[in-house]
Design a protein that fits this description.
heterodimer; A: alpha/beta; Rossmann fold; six-stranded mixed β-sheet; four-stranded antiparallel β-sheet; B: mainly alpha; ABC transporter involved in vitamin B12 uptake, BtuC; two-stranded antiparallel sheet; 6 strands; binds adenosine-5'-triphosphate; binds magnesium ion
Chain lengths: ~300, ~650
C-alpha cells in the first residue's frame, strides 16, 4: 500500500528525546527517550498511570511537553500543530474512544478519507473503496451502524480503520486490543504484523502481555514516567527492573491471563491485577479500561 | 492631579466590586467547568431582593444583607448546581452555554415580573460619611467596597489553602479524578462553590446598585466586566482575576475622565470592558484540543431531499394563500419578520446544530447585513448578496482573532462583539446614527422591484425555503459530515489531519452571511430600520428559541422563527405578564436546552407514530396499485415504523442514519 519505503537506514521514524511533562506538581513523563522504527512493531508498556497515554499525546501534538523534543521522519515536530503531524504521516487511536458517535461506521472512515484528501475531499466525496478498509480490520458487518452503538473493541478497530484511510507512516495505538476477545485479538496481531510488513511503524501501548510479547519487535517499559528498560520481548521478560515494576509478572505468563479473556471490561480488569505496580501511591488502584480513570478500590 | 487621584479611587472602587463578582465566577467555573453566563443576572436579582428587604419592607440593613448573602443567594447557588447545572461540565460546551443563557433571560424576565419598572434606589452604605483626602472626597461606600474586596480575597485564600474542603476544591480544579482518589466528594465541592459563587455575585451586585442604579440590564451586563477580569486570570487564577478587575475599573474610570465626550471616541467609553474582554481573549495562549468524547449528542433525523422540497413547496403555497387571502399589511409584515428570524435561526442550525459552536450575537450579524443593504444604491440581487458577503466577512473577522481558541472563548468573543457593535458601530454617524434610522428600498429582481408587501413576503419565504434546502444539501455532503465529525470529536479530527482553525473561520463566516442575508431582506421588508432592530440583547432569546424548537433541524428553525415573531406580539397584548413570558422562555430553555434537537424532534417522533398508526389502516382500504407492495397490516406498529423511516437513499447511496 505504501509505495515508498520510509525511514531508511539513517534516522528512526520516530524519536522521543528527553521528554518531560508536568501537570502542576505531578511529573507524568520524566525524561523519556525512545525510538520507533519503520517496518516494526514497538511496544510501550508500563503500569497504570505510568505516563503512556501522556507520551502519545506529546507525540501526536495534543499535549505540549514541558521539556524535550519529538522528531518524526527526521524533522523536529515538537512545536508543530496536531494536523500538521498527521499530514506528515502520523495516525493515532485513543484509549478513551474518540469515534464520531453520531455518524455511521462507514461515514467515520469516509470523513477520515475526505479529510486526508484536503480541499478536494470536502468538495467531492471520495471514490476509494471505504468498505475494503472496513473489511481489512474486520468490522464490515457494522458498516451501517452508528459509531456510538457498537462494542468497545469494534470502536477501537474503527479508529484504526479511520487512521488507515490516511495511509500513515506511523501508527500510535493506545490499548487497541482491550475489548477484543481471544480470537479477535489473534486476528488483530496478524493485522499488526501485516501493517508493519507494508513498511509502517507501529507504536503500541498495550496491557495484553500475550499480544505484546507476540507481535512486538522492541519493547520500552515506562514506570512513573521514566523508561526503565528497552529491548526485545525476551530481554524485557528477563529484566529484573521490569519484574520489580510489575509485581507478580514473571517469566511465565500467568495462567488466568490466557484463559477467560472474553470480550468486555471484566476480562481486561482481571488481566490487569497482575500489572499493579509496587509503588505506594497507586497500590490500591485499578483501572476501568474504557474510561481510563484511576479510582480507589473501595469506591469500586 | 487631584482629579487623577479621585478617578483612580473611583476606578479602584468599581474594580473592587468587579473583583468580588468575578472571583465568584472563577470559583464556579473552575470547580464545575460550567461557565455561568447568568452570573451577572443572579447579582442583579439579588440586588433587587436586597432592595425589597431593606427599602420596601424596611428590614434592618444588616439583617437584609445577612438574609441575601448568607441565606438566599447560597441556597439558590446550591439549588442551581444540584438541579440545573449538574453534569453540564462534562457535556458539550454549547449545551452549558445555552442553559446558562436560559437562566440569564429567565432571571431578567423574573425580575421584571416581580419588580415591575419603577424608580428605585439603593442608598450607599453610610451615605453621609466619607473621608477628605486633600482635594479628594472618598465616600464611605467606596472605602467599604474596597475593604470588602480585600476581605473576600483573603477569605478565598484561606478557604482554598487552609481548609480541607478548599484543598478538595483546588484538587477538583486540576483533576476531578484525583479528587475522588483523595476521598473528596465532588458533589459537595460543586454545590459549595456555587453557593459561594452566587453569594459573591450578589455582593458585587448590591455594592454597585447604589452607584449605577437598580436596572435589569445594566446590572446584568456588568457581568461582562466580570468575564473580562476573570479571563485575564484565564478563568483559573484568582490573583490575576483581582488584578484584571482593578485594572479594568481604573481603565474605565480614566476613559470616562479623559476621553472626549463627543465624536467617535466617545463611543469607546461605554465599551471599555467589551474591548478589554476582546483583547484578553485574543491574547489567550493556544487552547489544547479537548480529549475525551463529548457525550450525549443525538442528531435529529435528516429528511430526504424530495421530502424537504415537498415541505418547502407546501410552506410556499401556504404563505401564498395567506397573501392571496387578503391578509392585512401589518400581519404580512409579521409573517415576513418570522421568515427573517427563521433564516437567522437557520444560520444557527449550521453553526450550533451542526458545528457545535455558539454565537451570542447572531442578530448583530443580521444587523450588519441590513446596514450594508440600506447603504446600497440599487437594492437588486447582486446588492443583496453583496450585503450577505459583507456580513460573512465580518463574521470571519470575529472568528479570526480567536482562531486558536475554541468553544467558550469563541462564544464570549461574539458577546463582546455584539456589545461593541451595539454601542459603537450601529449608533455611529456613518451607520444608523444615534437613535437614528436608515431608509431601505424593496428588493428588485431582474429590474422588477417587488413593491407589494405580499409579493415581498412570498419572495422572503422563497429565500427561506432555498436556504433550508441548501443547508440540508450541505449537511448531506462531505462538508456536512466533516462538520458533524468536528462536533463529535475535535481531537480525532485534528489527528486525522484537519486544520480546524480555518474551518471554524469559514463556518462562522458562512453562518454570519446567512444571518446577514436575512437582515438585508428584513431591511427591504420594513423600509425603515435602525439600531434598535438589531439590539445585541435580542440575540439571546433568538438563540434560546432556536434551541427550544430544535437547533439541529430546518423545521425547528422555521418554527422558532414564528415563535420569536410572536414573542413581542404576546408581550404587547399582555403587558401585565411581559416579564413572565421571558421567564418562561428562559427557564423553558434551561429545561429543554440539554437536548438541542428540541421540540421539532419530538414532533418528528410523534409524526412517525401517527403515520404508523394511520397509514396501515389507509393501506387496507386502498386498492393495491400496480408497483405498490401489498403490505400486511398485521405487521404491527413497529414494522410500520420501520417501513416509514426515510425512504430515499441519499446522494451517496446509503440510507441516512437515524436516531
Ligand atoms: N490532563 C492531566 N492533568 C493532570 N494530570 C494528568 C493529566 N493527564 C494525565 N495526568 C496524570 O499523569 C499520569 C500519567 O497518566 P497517563 O494517562 O499518561 O498514564 P497511562 O500510562 O496512560 O495509564 P493507563 O494505563 O491507566 O492508561 C497520571 O498520574 C495521571 O493522573
Ligand atoms: Mg493510558
Amino acid at each position: 500500500m505504501s509505495d515508498h519505503p520510509i525511514g531508511g537506514a539513517h534516522a528512526p521514524l520516530l524519536e522521543v528525546d528527553h521528554v518531560v511533562v508536568q501537570f502542576g506538581g505531578v511529573t507524568a513523563v520524566n525524561e523519556a527517550t525512545f525510538v520507533a522504527d519503520a517496518g516494526t512493531v514497538t511496544g510501550l508498556i508500563g503500569p497504570n498511570g505510568a505516563g503512556k497515554t501522556t507520551c502519545f499525546n506529546v507525540i501526536s501534538g495534543l499535549q505540549k511537553p514541558t521539556r524535550g523534543k519529538v522528531r518524526f521522519r527526521g524533522r523536529n515536530v515538537t512545536g508543530a500543530p496536531v494536523h500538521r503531524r498527521s499530514k506528515r504521516g502520523m495516525g493515532r487511536t485513543f484509549q478513551r474512544l474518540e469515534a464520531f458517535g453520531s455518524l455511521s461506521v462507514r461515514d467515520n472512515v469516509r470523513v477520515a478519507y475526505d479529510i486526508h484528501r484536503g480541499l478536494a475531499g470536502l468538495v467531492r466525496p471520495g471514490a476509494k473503496d471505504i468498505d475494503a478498509l472496513l473489511d481489512r480490520v474486520g468490522i464490515s458487518s457494522y458498516a451501517d451502524e452508528r459509531a456510538d452503538s457498537i462494542p468497545t473493541g469494534t470502536a477501537r478497530l474503527l479508529e484504526l480503520a479511520r487512521c488507515l484511510a490516511g495511509d500513515p507512516k506511523l501508527l500510535l495505538l493506545d490499548e487497541p486490543s482491550s475489548g477484543l476477545d481471544e480470537s479477535e485479538t489473534d486476528d488483530f496481531g496478524d493485522l499488526l504484523r501485516d501493517l508493519a510488513a507494508e513498511g509502517r511503524g507501529i507504536l503500541m501501548v498495550e496491557h495484553d502481555m500475550d499480544l505484546v510479547m507476540g507481535v512486538c519487535d522492541t519493547i520500552h517499559v515506562l514506570d512513573f514516567g521514566s523508561i526503565i528498560a528497552s529491548g526485545t520481548p525476551g530481554e524485557i521478560r528477563r529484566d529484573p527492573a521490569v519484574q520489580r515494576a510489575y509485581l507478580g509478572y514473571s517469566d511465565e505468563v500467568p495462567e488466568h491471563e490466557l484463559v477467560g479473556a472474553s470480550a468486555g471490561a471484566s476480562a481486561v480488569e482481571e488481566t490487569r491485577t497482575d500489572l499493579v505496580p509496587v509503588g505506594a501511591a497507586t497500590e490500591a488502584t485499578t483501572v476501568i479500561p474504557a474510561v481510563g480513570a484511576t479510582i480507589p478500590e473501595d469506591v469500586r | 492631579m487631584s482629579s487623577l487621584i479621585s478617578f483612580t479611587i473611583l476606578g479602584l472602587f468599581t474594580g473592587a466590586a468587579y473583583a468580588i463578582a468575578a472571583s465568584g465566577l472563577v470559583l464556579t467555573y473552575t470547580t464545575t467547568r460550567v461557565f455561568n453566563i447568568a452570573h451577572g443576572a443572579f447579582g442583579m436579582v439579588m440586588a433587587f431582593v436586597f432592595w425589597d428587604f431593606s427599602q420596601r419592607q424596611g428590614l434592618n440593613l444588616f439583617l437584609s444583607l445577612f438574609l441575601v448573602l448568607g441565606v438566599i443567594a447560597p441556597a439558590i447557588g446550591w439549588g442551581i448546581q444540584r438541579f440545573v447545572t449538574k453534569g453540564l461540565g462534562e457535556g458539550p460546551v454549547s449545551v452549558a452555554l445555552v442553559v446558562t443563557v436560559g437562566l440569564f433571560v429567565g432571571l431578567i424576565g423574573l425580575a421584571q415580573q416581580v419588580w415591575p419598572p419603577e424608580p428605585r434606589t439603593v442608598p450607599p452604605f453610610m451615605a453621609s460619611s466619607g473621608v477628605q483626602l486633600g482635594d479628594t472626597y472618598i465616600t464611605a461606600h467606596q472605602i467599604i467596597t474596597i475593604v470588602i474586596s480585600i476581605g473576600v480575597a483573603l477569605g478565598l485564600y484561606v478557604l482554598l489553602n487552609r481548609t480541607r474542603i478548599g484543598t478538595a476544591m483546588r484538587a477538583s480544579v486540576d483533576n476531578p479524578e484525583l479528587l475522588k482518589l483523595f476521598g473528596g466528594k465532588p458533589d459537595t465541592v460543586a454545590a459549595l462553590s456555587w453557593a459561594i459563587g452566587i453569594s459573591l455575585a450578589a455582593l458585587g451586585g448590591i455594592l454597585l446598585s447604589s452607584v449605577i442604579g437598580l436596572s435589569y440590564y445594566d446590572l446584568t451586563l456588568l457581568v461582562i466586566n466580570a468575564y473580562a477580569a476573570a479571563m485575564l486570570g484565564r478563568l483559573k487564577s484568582l490573583p490575576l482575576t483581582f488584578v484584571g478587575a482593578m485594572g479594568l475599573g481604573i481603565l474605565q474610570s480614566f476613559a470616562v475622565a479623559y476621553l472626549p465626550s463627543d465624536g467617535f471616541l466617545a463611543g469607546t467609553r461605554a465599551v471599555v470592558p467589551a474591548l478589554f474582554l476582546f483583547v484578553v481573549i485574543v491574547l489567550m495562549p493556544q487552547a489544547q484540543l479537548r480529549i475525551g468524547q463529548v457525550k450525549g449528542i443525538v442528531s435529529a433525523p435528516l429528511p430526504s431531499i424530495t421530502k424537504s422540497v415537498a415541505w418547502g413547496g407546501a410552506l410556499l403555497v401556504f404563505v401564498a394563500l395567506l397573501v392571496g387571502g387578503g391578509m392585512s399589511t401589518a400581519n404580512l409584515l409579521l409573517v415576513g419578520t418570522a421568515a427573517t428570524y427563521a433564516m437567522v435561526m437557520l444560520s444557527l442550525v449550521l453553526l450550533t446544530g451542526y458545528g457545535g459552536h455558539v454565537s451570542l450575537a447572531q442578530l448583530t450579524f443580521a444587523g450588519v447585513g441590513a446596514l450594508a443593504y440600506a447603504k446600497l444604491e440599487q437594492p437588486n440581487l447582486a446588492g443583496l448578496f453583496l450585503a450577505a458577503a459583507i456580513a460573512a466577512g465580518v463574521g470571519a473577522l470575529v472568528a479570526l482573532p480567536v482562531l486558536r481558541l475554541t468553544g467558550l472563548y469563541l462564544a464570549l468573543s461574539t458577546l463582546a462583539f455584539g456589545v461593541l457593535m451595539d454601542k459603537m458601530i450601529f449608533q455611529a454617524e456613518f451607520a444608523f446614527g444615534f437613535n437614528g434610522t436608515l431608509q431601505a428600498g424593496r428588493l428588485s429582481i431582474l429590474g422588477n422591484a417587488i413593491e407589494s408587501t405580499g409579493g415581498y413576503v412570498l419572495v422572503m419565504t422563497l429565500f427561506l425555503v432555498l436556504m433550508g434546502i441548501a443547508l440540508l444539501l450541505l449537511r448531506r455532503g462531505s462538508l456536512g459530515r466533516v462538520l458533524i465529525a468536528m462536533r463529535d470529536s475535535p481531537a480525532a479530527c485534528g489527528t486525522l489531519g484537519l486544520d480546524m482553525r480555518w474551518f471554524r473561520v469559514g463556518l462562522f463566516g458562512l453562518s454570519a452571511g446567512m444571518a446577514g442575508l436575512a437582515g438585508a431582506l428584513f431591511a427591504g421588508l420594513r423600509g425603515t430600520i435602525g439600531a434598535a432592530d438589531f439590539q445585541f440583547f435580542n440575540s439571546l432569546p433568538l438563540l434560546l428559541l432556536a434551541v427550544v424548537f430544535g437547533v439541529t433541524s430546518v423545521t425547528g428553525a422555521t418554527l422558532g422563527g414564528v415563535g420569536l415573531m410572536l414573542l413581542p406580539v404576546m408581550q404587547s397584548n399582555n403587558p401585565g405578564i411581559a416579564g413572565l413570558i421571558f421567564a418562561v422562555l428562559g427557564f423553558g430553555a434551561v429545561a429543554l436546552g440539554r437536548d438541542p434537537n428540541g421540540l421539532a424532534n419530538l414532533m418528528f417522533g410523534l409524526g412517525r407514530r401517527i403515520q404508523a398508526l394511520v397509514l396501515p389502516q389507509l393501506r387496507d382500504r386502498l386498492p393495491v396499485l400496480p408497483g405498490r407492495r401489498p403490505d400486511g397490516s398485521d405487521d404491527g406498529e413497529d414494522a410500520g415504523l420501520a417501513d416509514l423511516l426515510p425512504e430515499t437513499p441519499d446522494a451517496t447511496g446509503k440510507v441516512p442514519a437515524h436516531v
